[in-house]
């Protein structure tokens, strides 16, 4: 098995929802055989026995892209939460790196995991994220089924307030710490949503 397809030396690997039990076999093989593993502290902590070099993402994706450009000889894995191409780092690196050097290995997204735990179809879902953006809630609430990956600025409480401000009737399903031992999934009305939640994905349902 080659490190990456067609001789690429950079692999962007989706970790899945969090628990390494959800890693795809290809993703695990690439992590086991790379020289440098790059990710957030939480991601890197998933691999305590990794023998190579670990590099922490410092928040500057431009610096990461520059460093990758300077090291064409190293087999490198960049870790991504969930699926790298679903509001993930894969989209950025696919525009910054030479395509011949890049291979992207998808993972199970947190949204996929939550819908599976709910036994709820994703066929008609609108997928979006609040990471680094101001969501268009008027547009979002036109959909009967929405999954939103949240951040610290716009989370379940802020979404609930947007629903209430419009006088809409919706059900919110909040999945916290998905796949981890402290996972919690709650089905709430907007009025019941608290101000603070751990790392989460929100499903918004119009059940009229």
| Overall CATH architecture of the largest domain | 3-Layer(aba) Sandwich
State the CATH class of the largest domain: Alpha Beta
Rg to the nearest angstrom? Answer: 18 Å
Judged by helices, strands and strand pairing, the structural class is alpha/beta
Tally of domains: 2
The count of strands amounts to 10
Number of helices: 7
Main beta-sheet annotation: 5 strands, parallel
Please estimate the helix content. 25-40%
Order of helices and strands: EHEHEHEHEHEHEHEEE
* Through-space gap between termini: 51 Å
CATH superfamily of the largest domain: Tetrapyrrole methylase, N-terminal domain
β content, as a range?
A: 15-25%
Widest sheet: strand ordering: 3-2-4-1-5
The 3D shape can be described as elongated
Poorly predicted tracts of residues: none
Structure description:
The chain has 208 residues and is of the alpha/beta class. It folds into two domains: 104 residues, Cobalt-precorrin-4 Transmethylase, domain 1 (3-Layer(aba) Sandwich), CATH 3.40.1010; 95 residues, 2-Layer Sandwich (Methyltransferase, Cobalt-precorrin-4 Transmethylase, Domain 2), CATH 3.30.950. It has seven helices and ten strands. The strands form two sheets. It has a five-stranded parallel sheet with strand order 3-2-4-1-5, sandwiched between helices. A five-stranded mixed sheet has the order 6-7-10-8-9, covered by helices on one side. The termini are far apart. The mean pLDDT is 93.
């Amino acid at each position: 098995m080659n490190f990456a397809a067609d001789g690429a030396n950079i692999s962007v690997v989706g970790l899945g929802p969090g628990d390494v039990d959800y890693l795809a076999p290809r993703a695990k093989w690439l992590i086991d055989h790379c020289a440098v593993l790059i990710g957030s502290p939480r991601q890197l902590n998933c691999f305590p026995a990794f023998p190579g070099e670990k590099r922490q993402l410092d928040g500057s994706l431009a610096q990461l892209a520059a460093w990758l450009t300077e090291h064409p000889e190293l087999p490198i894995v960049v870790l991504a939460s969930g699926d790298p191409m679903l509001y993930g780092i894969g989209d950025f690196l696919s525009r910054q790196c030479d395509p011949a050097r890049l291979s992207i290995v998808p993972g199970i997204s947190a949204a996929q995991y939550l819908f599976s735990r709910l036994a709820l179809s994703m066929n008609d879902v609108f997928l979006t994220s609040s990471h680094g953006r101001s969501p268009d809630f008027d547009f979002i609430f036109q959909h009967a089924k929405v999954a939103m990956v949240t951040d610290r600025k716009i989370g379940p409480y802020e979404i609930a307030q947007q629903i209430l401000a419009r006088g809409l009737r919706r059900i919110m399903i909040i999945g916290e710490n998905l796949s981890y031992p402290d996972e919690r999934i709650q089905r709430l009305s907007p009025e019941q949503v608290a101000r603070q939640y751990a790392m989460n994905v929100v499903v918004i349902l119009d059940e009229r």
